[in-house]
Amino acid sequence: MAVLQFREAIRAAMVEEMARDENIFLIGEEVAEYNGAYKVSEGMLDRFGAGRVIDTPISESGFAGLGVGAAMAGLRPVVEFMTFNFSFVAFDQLVNNAAKIRYMSGGQYAIPIVFRGPNGAAGQLAATHNTAVESLYSYFPGLKVVAPSNPDDAKGLLKSAIRDDDPVIFLESESMYGLKGEVSDAADYLIPLGKARIAREGADVTLVAHQKSYWRALEAADRLAEDGYEAEVIDPRTIRPLDIDAIAASVRKTNRLVVVDESNPFASFSSEVACQVQERVFDWLDAPVLRVTAKDAPAPYAKNLIEYYMPRTEDIVAAAKKALYAR
Amino acid sequence: MPIPVEMPKMSDTMEEGVLVSWLAEEGDAVSSGDIIAQVETDKATMDLEVYDDGVLLKKVIPAGAAVPIGGLIAVLGEAGEDISGLLAGYDGGAGVAHSEAPAASTGDGAIQPAEAAAPPQTTETAEPPVLADAGRVKSSPLARRLAEEHGVALQQIAGSGPEGRIVKRDVEAAIRQAVPGRSVDPGYSAAALEAPAEDAFETLPISQMRKTIARRLAESKYTSPHFYVTVDVDVEQAVAARARINAKAEAEGGVKISFNDLVTKACALALSRHPAANASWFEQEGVIRRHGQVHVAIAVAIDDGLVTPVIRHADRKGLAQIAAETRELARRARDRSLQPEDWEGSTFTTSNLGMYGVEEFTAIINPPNACILAIGAIRDEAVVRDGAIAPGKRMKLTLSSDHRVVDGAVAAAFVGTVRSYLEEPLSMLL
Amino acid sequence: MAGETRKKTRQPVAEGKAQGNGISAVSQNGHSAATAEDGASEPFVDYPAGAYTHEELGISDDETRAMYRNMLLQRRFEERAAQMYGKQKIGGFLHLYIGQEAVSTGSAYAMEIGKDSVITAYRDHGLGLALGMTSNECMAELFGKVGGSSRGKGGSMHYFKKELNFYGGHGIVGGHIAVGAGIAFAHKYKGDGGVCLTYFGDGAVGQGSFHETMNLAALYETPCVFVIENNEYAMGTATHRAFAQPDFYRYADSYGMPSALASGMDIFSVYKAMSDHIAMARNNRPSILEVRTYRYRGHSMSDPANYRTKEELDARKEQDPIIRLKGYLLERELASNEDLDAADAEIKQEVMDSVAFSEESPAPALPEIYEHVYAQTDYPFLTD
Lengths: 327, 430, 384
Fold this sequence. Notes:
The complex is a heterotrimer.
Chain A: E1 2-5, H1 6-20, E2 24-28, H2 44-48, E3 53-55, H3 60-72, E4 76-80, H4 91-104, E5 114-118, H5 134-137, E6 144-146, H6 151-163, E7 168-172, E8 180-183, E9 197-200, E10 205-209, H7 211-226, E11 231-235, E12 238-240, H8 244-254, E13 257-261, H9 269-281, E14 290-293, H10 303-309, H11 313-323
Parallel strand pairs in A: 2-3, 2-4, 4-5, 5-7, 6-7, 10-11, 10-13, 13-14
Antiparallel strand pairs in A: 1-8, 6-12, 9-11
Chain B: E1 3-6, E2 16-22, E3 29-30, E4 35-40, E5 45-49, E6 54-59, E7 65-68, E8 72-77, H1 84-92, E9 97-98, H2 119-124, E10 130-131, H3 141-149, E11 158-159, H4 168-177, H5 191-194, H6 208-223, E12 226-234, H7 236-252, H8 259-273, E13 279-282, E14 287-290, E15 296-298, E16 300-302, E17 305-307, E18 310-311, H9 319-335, H10 340-343, E19 348-352, E20 371-385, E21 388-402, H11 408-423
Chain C: H1 6-9, H2 31-38, E1 44-47, H3 61-86, H4 101-110, E2 117-119, H5 125-131, H6 135-143, H7 175-190, E3 196-201, H8 208-220, E4 224-230, E5 233-234, E6 237-238, H9 239-242, H10 251-254, E7 259-263, H11 267-282, E8 287-292, H12 310-317, H13 321-331, H14 337-360
Parallel strand pairs in C: 1-7, 2-3, 3-4, 4-8, 7-8
Antiparallel strand pairs in C: 5-6
Helix pairs in contact in C: 3-4, 3-5, 3-13, 3-14, 4-5, 4-11, 6-14, 7-8
């Protein structure tokens, strides 16, 4: 085990996979000579050369589509978006071409591609630069969506994503790139997609949270423990496919569920979990499934507003206590 | 700027108060510290004090109305000041509910349903348990499944969740009662249910105190599995000792003691020797708390209810002091002038119906205590003493215990100690 | 890394496996400055109709006859498909290629099928058949049957054939252009010598994807030919109503690419232009080839084509590429009328057989709805 930053874990996954399979290449804005806008790909140009670590002009639609074509033709591109906010100008490439070509070709063409980059809010960037996209992209059958919360998961999941024969949206976070954690250096460290991780066991209430929200949920669990409530914290890690079995099993035990998600609330990941849980374990619920999400508004700029906008630890504690009927 | 006067929280268990009477009129000048109304809480009738100077511009609610904590009661300000903005601000946020009328059907626009009380209370504090009405029973899916599995009728369970929703803990309590489908304490049933169908009946408003008694004792009976241990105590010596003490007090102008004071003292000493009985079950925290102090509450009957003022550190107080405090607390209870500190914090309770000639009875535990002692009447009885039948004095004590906290052996040991103190009152001096 | 001119600084990109250390073209500073200084424009060639014979182009007599047959198959297939659409055997959209067959067939004979790649938009029947997809799999796909090329999952707009390196059949205007550049990128990356022919209509030129891709392809020097099939109408909007610059080949100059104009009414014009541009692509020189063609039918089956006159249509039909090649074959005595009638009869029979095949082919079983969504075989779908 080595202690790595989140960005280093991502890089380690890419470097290991590119060393293993020469069909893998990295393409995106500032990935090569600039060494990565967030220094994720630092040093990779030197190691793999400009033929495999490729800078692009600001043309998300163009290079995302280029990646899809290369994947259809047998390569395994890793396409970096400087942030997923910029993926929206490439939306057609992701949700039509990457997601659907396999289907429309009757299975003739696989699209083994990873689109990766930071997701969600990163402070006072205002509305267009603060979008959490997991709810959006997980809507589309044909795509997989991965959203790790820590360096170890990031490495194991990215290696799996790169080896996956389906298109994967791999979500990182600007504010988590510096996060340090122990990371396995085992050869072929692969964490399967679609498996949740039970980060903390508890019998009283289940908290489902990923990425930044996961850390808020852990804080909330600590505070709940001070009041005598043991929260079970589940990090789904993969949004699509979702490990609903793990969540449902936990709810069978705790009878209560709070979903924490920095997406906007309407038609979001949290809505999806709430819906699937009531479909599966309705008779085990002792309280409505509650959600803690970003507010139902575009992300604001003002410091106080953006802090209020995001799911906060106290919001999670309050929701958990509400679900617990705590007095 | 008009100043709102809101319903204050006047006790730890209070959720709403009834404005019993107004002591000031609109247009009166009031100043900080003035009492403008009296409010009946679940525990007592309290003075409503204002904290600002000004003119009482509006009495927002009529006498007799119930107001949730934070609800608007009155508006102070300068004469002639426009208060419409302030009133409008309370329309959606805080509210007032008449005790006479169902909250939801109140016609007056200024009167809000009780559910619309200040958001922090409604969202983060569980509402008081209410009996599910004859119509739709609100219950969680899990509660329904548990009830079905255990053959418990949901209609008979009081829900403790929001809007009376029956949740897991309510059903589990009913299951522990082990009386499927009949888990309601008969004493708790509405009088109307017991009346023959053709008889006329009278409906009585439920006072705050009755509501609190209903809620707390129902909760106690549902959630804490009661069991009962009765002992028959030879109180000949205790009666004699009391007679001597009181004769001396009369001669010296001291405090007379009641027999109940002796029992209080005996219980207090026994509790200090049996800390397992001086304890509380804390469900949410997942712990049993053994109290480091002995605070004995004494049930005092008053009009339309009862209160349980507390003799603090009763194990460390002499009989005279216990007697004096008990008398004073009882007087103030009847005057409804007890303050929250007078009734909060008990670790044990006694209830005495001996004065009504009741020989023995069982009491419902006063939460969060683990035990309550029911004291019967002193009986003149023929007893066998030294092989011969002789006149004697006996009294039955019945201890109700919460089996989650106290087991049978502990209860038996505890009442055994109480008995030995009363049978040899001098040992209480040791 | 500064270079004097664009051509000197142009270096191979994305030859990951073959070269391993190409260079990112983004670092080509000096490009625009050099161009501005010398004012040079990119090469342009016109390939007019009637300028070439098959001998000059090195096409054998047999191949010339096969080209005719290849075009006629597309024509007869689509005529029958139109009838089947009217009989409600075919649902959804049906965009016919009739009139544009010289483009598909001319390309198919200029390229190396199986080595080179093809991707096109939704008017894809012609290219599919020209490349060698069978009438059966094409007609059955229109019928939505298991015998279809995509097992009935793609329909008219989404023909794919992996063995032929046919990458579809794409329904969103312009979206596939970037995919084409990616396929070309892969040819270069793998160093397999193949090129990608990326076809789209005049309407797609208005999409951002077109312009982004032209820049990327030129920057990365991908082996790609961008073929603009200019049939003069984007649905019902004539090119001059939609574009300030309707001479589409001229866009190439902006992206530093050579360009050409070919006649879609003359298969030899298309063949010649395509051969030259494929050769450039093999040297990693992407280009734009605008083919002026004409679609006889409406945009789709529901389009009455009121935006053009009957006179215009009749005038164009006289230049029909199939009639033109038929005249060429007869004039040069490469085939007799009887030969050509016999070929026509055979083709018509083949198409009729494909209708019968499609009728008999079973509809996909309902569980197939979850097949081919993911490569993962045990994906946990949210099923009923």
